[in-house]
Each structure stands twice: as structure tokens, then as C-alpha cells.
Specification:
Layout: H1 3-12, H2 23-29, E1 32-33, E2 41-42, E3 50-53, H3 55-61, H4 66-73, E4 77-78, E5 89-90, E6 93-94, E7 98-102, E8 105-106, E9 110-111, E10 114-115, E11 125-132, H5 136-139, E12 146-152, E13 159-168, E14 172-183, E15 186-197, E16 226-240, E17 243-256, E18 271-288, E19 291-308, E20 315-317, E21 323-325, E22 334-353, E23 357-371, E24 380-397, E25 402-415, E26 419-432, E27 435-446, H6 450-454, E28 456-460, E29 464-468, E30 476-489, E31 492-504, E32 507-512, H7 519-525, E33 529-537, E34 540-554, E35 557-574, E36 579-583, E37 588-589, E38 591-604, E39 607-618, E40 621-622, E41 632-646, E42 649-658, E43 681-692, H8 696-711
Parallel strand pairs: 7-12, 29-33
Antiparallel strand pairs: 1-2, 3-11, 4-5, 5-6, 7-8, 9-10, 11-12, 13-14, 13-43, 14-15, 15-16, 16-17, 17-18, 18-19, 19-22, 20-21, 22-23, 23-24, 24-25, 25-26, 26-27, 27-30, 28-29, 30-31, 31-34, 32-33, 34-35, 35-36, 35-38, 37-40, 38-39, 39-41, 41-42, 42-43
């Protein structure tokens, strides 16, 4: 049966006749969310459609990475993981259009133009809030496809020491370690997490150019061995009941190790890839009755190196923009590819005004600096952006059972290169009993990145491809429309949302004639230069589709399913025919879906069992070059075993099987894959926690008082 019909049947044939409210459903509907409007609302009353992956869903699923969590627990996301990033896509638009936040702050880390999601410790996530569609009025650039806000756990224990260790197939090891201390007005949380894998090879076939014989015994791996770790510290000081200050910092290292091949002509794995991230941030919040004032500032650094494993020369650009060959590098030496640094400052106020108005207003400053000594003219580039924004929310009860919520926002942006721009947004929600109807119109705005404008590099794999930046790029603009409904029948929740996103001047990599490559590259590579790819503004692009979901909770059981239909179209100017070609946006799949059922039962005080079956599906993903990605269905079984507590110690075990039916995409290396899974894998996890009190200072005073009374 075609995938689209399978998914529709799952959604439409859920048990509508089962009745009975549950506490879990009430808790979920009353959950507080902040991402959609930047202010607090319960999930059922937020005026912009928001999807939440709750703490309970995260604990039941036991995901090893943020890619695994998002790809399995919501239907709208697609991933194609590789050495150069996760290649995430949301409703037809890629990573560059998705703003990822950690506790409301932008993530910083670029792996091949993709956000480095290994910065996120999945075991320290409280919940994930997802808002689809343009949110530039509130969040600025990058928020054209949507916003993902990863909210971390807040620790108020007097003392908490925890360790979670996961081991799995292919040398997969994951470590989470946490130390939380609360003493009087001071709280501290130290977090260390480690991820490593030996990698795997799904096929030994290597794609070559059409006039070359195929390679059948390649050493290229589907997923290369990798190791990354991060240590982070956050300190909070409660200066007064209404004023809280914080400071935080982190350091992150990531290594991708590429085994050398056996064919000199195609062997370009003469270096491993190394990444280093650093963060320093500080800020605070001041409560003034019902009003709130916050200040946040942070500095981020992301550096990317090639570390050589054999003797090699590399291409580069000198300070005058000329193509040069560097002197030989030897094993163990490294060369900086790019150093991206960013400073941001954000002042925001939330004010309750008369007549049920809630005003949010703020100002932001952002400075970006790029140092790429071998890949951009002049070696360095910078950019800065300032913004002012305001948002007004108004709520009214039209009758006893009918409510109206209106939300309007506007952001004024000034960019160093592209001047001034206004980004508006309007959303509304009409509620009638348990029915919610939401509508949104918003404009997105995104300036070209420094890499899109200035970067140039050669990728020598089975083909030699030159990638070029474009100094003539224009900012991208979008108009996003959505209309959705959410209805609750007893403990069954149904949701459907249709959307249309129209982009102007969308930036994408397109193939251009080899004759347009800079002369020095033509001279160096000649006829061996297979393709030239450059960032260009498409004339127009659009994405449109429907997202639907269903969730049913009955006592110890939870059932859920999601379905996403998507279509895209972009216009690209053809230099040869002097006409507009209509193409799809790379990575699009018409149909995606997810299904899950979980069961939780406590057998006694010391033991509780949880079990979950999860499925994720995708139809074929389309690409302009290097083939399409195959459709797939992947199923996962996970179990959790809560072993209770003994005094201040608590233990939990997890075990599961991923890809139960052993699906493997064995498409040749160099062509697009539907999924990179190695087939059936198993994993096991042990968590140990030690907790003591709520506040060490208060505990100390209480114990001292008890001891004094005993002496008396």
C-alpha cells in the first residue's frame, strides 16, 4: 500500500469511541510554552501553533541525539546525516532557514553550513518547543522555516550527582554527567557529555563520473568514526527575590576520523576534521510585579581545522584573492579552514498594560566575524546587525464559551551591508469550547551569510567540484500563511494545519557553466573540473503542505501519529536557454510520517516498566544532482526500567532495538541516501542519581538547629 494511504489510515482509524479524561492529558494541555510569542502561555491557549516534545516523551524514547529525537517524534523533519552536518529540513526548507535555540539563545556551530547539533546533550533536555513558519518579527534572521527551542533541565536540588551511560552497536558510547549544587542564593550546574562511534559502511560501491569504471571495493564509510565532548558550567545568583543573575560558559571539541582509501585518484581522505567551540555568556532578569526585564549577552567561537594524516598540499587564496598552492603539510599538522565568532546582546521587556494588552519590546545587537585564511578573499570578513522590535497581545472573552486572542509584531532591522528592513507578523486564535482555530501571516527576512558571499573551496572526492560564494547576493524575503484547527474529544486530540510559504530571492547552490569558474581554477584543474556550483538567488520559490497529528491517552497507554504532506517549487534562471527552469528544492519528500504507542505501569514501589514502539516513514527525497534518496520505514522498540530509590540513590535501566526490520540503504557512495542507518542496532543505558535536599545552606541550618535542641 502506498505510504500516504498507510499514514492516512493510521490517523483516521484511531479509536474515536474510547472516552474518559486522564490526568496526563490535562497536564499536557496546561503545559507552559514560551517560544511562539516570547511570553508564557499554556499550550492550549498559545495563539501560534506550537508542537511540544515533552520530558515524558523524551524519557520514553531514549534518543541518543537531537537528530534521532526530532526525526522520530515529529513528522515534519528530515535528516541526512554525514560528515558535513545533519542536513536538517523542516517543511521543505533547510538548516539555514531554521533557527535553533537553547534556552532561548541562538546555537552557534557550523559544520558544512549546518548547525552542529552535537552541541546538545539529549539527556539534559527538559522539553523541545517547535514553532513552524516565519518568525523573523520576533527572532530576526534565520527564522524563515521555523524555530526550535531546546529547553534544558532546571536543577533546584541541594546536591545532585548523576551519570547516564549508553552503549550500543558499532562502538556507540554516550556519556552524560551532571553535578548540581544549590547553596543559599547561589546555584551551580556542571554538565559533561561525550559521544563516540566507530562508524559503519553500508556499501563498498563508489559512484564515479559517467566515463569512469565503477569502484566496487571502496573504503569510504557511510558514517565515519567520530568523537565529540562538551563541558559546560552555569552559575545563578539570586540577588534579591526579584533579581536573578547568571553566568555560563562551555567548551566543545569534535573530531571526525576518515580512513584512507586505496585509490590515489579518488583518495582525498588525507585529513581528519576537527572542530572547537567556546561560549561565554551572562545576563539576568528583573521582575517588577507582573512585568519583566531581561538582559542577555554572549560570545561564541567556532573553529574548523583539517588535521593531516598523510603528506599533502592544499589549495588556497592569498590576501590579494589569488589562487595558490600551499607548501606540503605533514601528518599531525593542521590548517585552519574557518574561525567564526559572534557577539550578541539582547535587552527585552514584557509589560502588562490595561485592557488585557501584553507588550513585549526589545533591542538586539549582533556582530559576526569570519576568518578563513585559505577560502576567502582578504582572509577576513565581518557583518553586524541591529534591531528593534515590539509585539502586542490582546485577549478577550466574546462570550462564556468563545475567546479571541490577537497577536501583532514588528521588527526594524538595520544590516551593515543591506540597510533597513521591516518584518511584520500577525496571528490570531479563536477558541470555542475545546476547538482552537489559529491563523498566521508573517514575513521572513534573511541576509546572506558571510560564507555564502565570500567562501570558495574545492571538493575532491569521486568528482572534483568547485563551490563559489557570490558577492552579489540579495537578502531573502518570505511571506508565510497558515491556518490550523485543534480539537479535543475527551482524551483524544486532533490537529491539522495547512501552510504556504513564498520566498523571494531564495539562496541556493546551483550548477553554473565551467567557463564561469575563476581563471586560476580552470588553469589548475582543466577538464578534470567536473562541476562548478555557486550560491545564487533563485527568482522565486514556494513550499506548501499540510501537517496533521493525532494523540490519544488512556490510563497507562499513549497513542500518537503524525503526517506531513509537502510540495515545493523554485524558479532558476538557465544561462544556456535564457529561461526560467522550474525545479524542486533539494531534499524534499512529498510524504513523511511518524507513529508511536507507549505503555507505562508501576508494578510496585520499587519497579516501573515503560515500553514504546516508534515508527518513522518517508517517501522518496528529490535532488537536482547525484540521484534521489530512497523512501524508507524504520521501526524502534524501547523499554525503560525504573528500579526505584534506596535512600538518596536512584537507578534506571533502558534497553532497545532500533531499525527492527533491518532496513539498509545501499546506494553507492557519492549519491544521495534516504537514510544512513546501518540496519538493526541495539543499545543499553544505565542511569544513577544521587540527590540530597533542596538547598544545602537551608539543610545545614536545619540540621544545626536540630543538634542544638538535642543538646538542650
Amino acid at each position: 500500500m502506498p505510504l500516504r494511504y498507510t499514514l492516512l489510515n493510521i490517523i483516521l482509524c484511531f479509536p474515536l469511541l474510547l472516552l474518559g479524561q486522564t490526568d496526563e492529558k490535562e497536564i499536557a494541555m496546561k503545559e507552559v510554552v514560551v517560544t511562539a510569542t516570547g511570553t508564557q502561555h499554556t499550550l492550549k491557549d498559545v495563539p501560534v501553533q506550537t508542537e511540544v516534545i515533552s520530558r515524558k516523551m523524551l524519557d520514553s524514547f531514549g534518543g541518543k541525539s537531537i537528530e534521532e529525537i526530532l526525526g522520530s517524534l515529529t513528522a515534519s523533519f528530515a535528516f541526512n546525516e554525514g560528515d558535513m552536518g545533519s542536513q536538517m529540513q523542516l517543511n521543505g526548507l533547510g538548516n539555514n532557514y531554521i533557527l535553533i535555540l537553547i534556552d532561548g539563545k541562538r546555537i552557534h556551530g557550523d559544520v558544512g553550513g549546518e548547525n552542529d547539533l552535537s552541541l546538545v546533550d539529549p539527556r539534559n533536555i527538559e522539553k523541545i518547543e517547535i514553532v513552524k513558519g516565519a518568525s523573523s518579527a520576533l527572532y530576526g534572521s534565520d527564522a524563515i522555516a521555523g524555530v526550535i527551542n531546546i529547553i534544558t533541565k532546571k536543577h533546584d536540588e541541594g546536591l545532585l550527582v548523576e551519570n547516564t551511560t549508553t552503549v550500543g552497536s558499532y562502538g556507540d558510547v554516550r556519556q552524560h554527567n551532571g553535578l548540581a549544587i544549590s547553596y543559599g542564593k547561589l546555584s551551580s550546574y556542571t554538565n559533561f557529555h561525550l559521544q563516540r562511534t566507530d562508524g559503519w559502511q553500508n556499501t563498498s560501491k563508489e559512484h564515479t563520473s559517467s566515463f569512469e569504471p565503477p569502484i566496487t571495493d571502496s573504503r569510504s564509510m557511510t558514517a565515519n568514526p567520530k568523537t565529540n565532548w562538551k563541558i559546560a558550567e552555569r552559575v545563578t545568583f539570586q540577588l534579591s527575590p526579584n533579581i536573578e543573575l547568571y553566568g555560563e560558559g562551555s567548551y566543545h571539541k569534535r573530531g571526525i576520523f576518515r580512513p584512507q582509501g586505496k585509490y590515489p585518484k579518488y583518495d582525498v581522505t588525507y585529513y581528519d576534521m576537527r572542530y572547537q567551540n567556546a561560549l561565554v555568556a551572562f545576563g539576568g532578569k528583573w521582575k517588577m510585579g507582573k512585568n519583566l526585564l531581561t538582559l542577555d549577552a554572549d560570545w561564541n567561537k567556532h573553529a574548523y581545522f583539517h588535521e593531516f594524516t598523510s603528506i599533502a598540499t592544499t589549495e588556497g587564496i592569498d590576501k590579494n584573492g589569488n589562487f595558490v598552492l600551499d607548501s606540503p603539510y605533514f601528518p599531525g599538522q593542521r590548517i585552519l579552514q574557518s574561525d567564526q565568532q559572534r557577539f550578541t546582546a539582547h535587552l527585552k521587556g514584557v509589560f502588562h498594560l490595561p485592557h488585557r494588552h501584553l507588550l513585549s519590546a526589545g533591542m538586539e545587537y549582533r556582530y559576526d566575524w569570519l576568518n578563513a585564511p585559505t577560502s576567502i578573499e582578504g582572509r577576513e570578513a565581518n557583518d553586524n546587525t541591529e534591531a528593534l522590535y515590539a509585539q502586542d497581545e490582546w485577549q478577550a472573552s466574546l462570550s462564556k464559551s468563545v475567546g479571541l486572542h490577537l497577536n501583532g509584531g514588528l521588527r526594524l532591522i538595520r544590516n551593515q551591508q543591506f540597510g533597513w528592513h521591516l518584518s511584520p507578523k500577525v496571528s490570531s486564535m479563536l477558541s470555542w469550547h475545546d476547538l482552537r482555530i489559529r491563523a498566521t501571516w508573517s514575513q521572513g527576512f534573511k541576509t546572506p551569510t558571510l560564507k555564502e558571499q565570500r567562501y570558495r573551496y574545492v571538493r575532491e572526492m569521486t568528482q572534483i567540484i568547485l563551490f563559489l560564494g557570490n558577492r552579489d547576493l540579495k537578502p531573502q524575503k518570505s511571506n508565510y500563511f497558515s491556518l490550523g484547527a485543534e480539537y479535543t474529544i475527551a482524551n483524544l486530540t486532533l490537529s491539522v494545519t495547512g501552510y504556504y510559504n513564498r520566498l523571494g530571492d531564495m539562496i541556493a547552490l546551483v550548477t553554473i557553466p565551467r567557463s564561469e569558474a575563476p581563471a586560476q581554477y580552470q588553469k589548475q584543474y582543466g577538464e578534470t573540473l567536473n562541476k562548478v556550483r555557486q550560491y545564487n538567488n533563485m527568482e522565486r520559490a514556494k513550499t506548501y503542505g499540510v501537517d496533521a497529528s493525532v494523540r490519544y491517552v488512556h490510563r497507562e497507554w499513549t497513542f500518537g501519529a503524525g503526517y506531513s504532506y509537502l510540495d515545493t517549487q523554485a524558479d532558476v534562471y538557465n544561462e544556456t536557454t535564457h529561461s526560467l527552469d522550474k525545479v524542486i528544492i533539494d531534499g524534499m519528500a512529498h510524504h513523511k510520517g511518524n507513529v508511536y504507542v507507549t505503555w507505562n505501569h508501576r508494578f510496585c514501589k520499587r519497579y516501573a516498566l515503560g515500553a514504546g514502539l516508534y515508527g518513522r516513514m518517508s517517501s522518496k527525497r528529490f535532488y537536482q544532482i547525484n540521484g534521489d534518496g530512497k523512501g524508507y520505514q524504520i521501526w524502534r522498540l524501547s523499554t525503560t526500567h525504573d528500579l526505584g530509590a534506596s535512600g538518596k540513590l536512584a537507578w534506571q535501566l533502558e534497553a532497545g532495538i532500533d531499525n527492527i526490520f533491518n532496513y539498509v540503504d545501499r546506494t553507492d557512495h557519492g549519491l544521495h541516501l534516504g537514510t544512513t542507518t546501518p540496519g538493526t542496532t541495539v543499545y543499553g543505558t544505565l542511569t544513577i542519581r544521587f540527590r540530597h535536599g533542596k538547598n544545602l545552606k537551608n539543610n545545614y541550618k536545619s540540621n544545626l538547629k536540630i543538634n542544638e535542641n538535642e543538646e538542650d
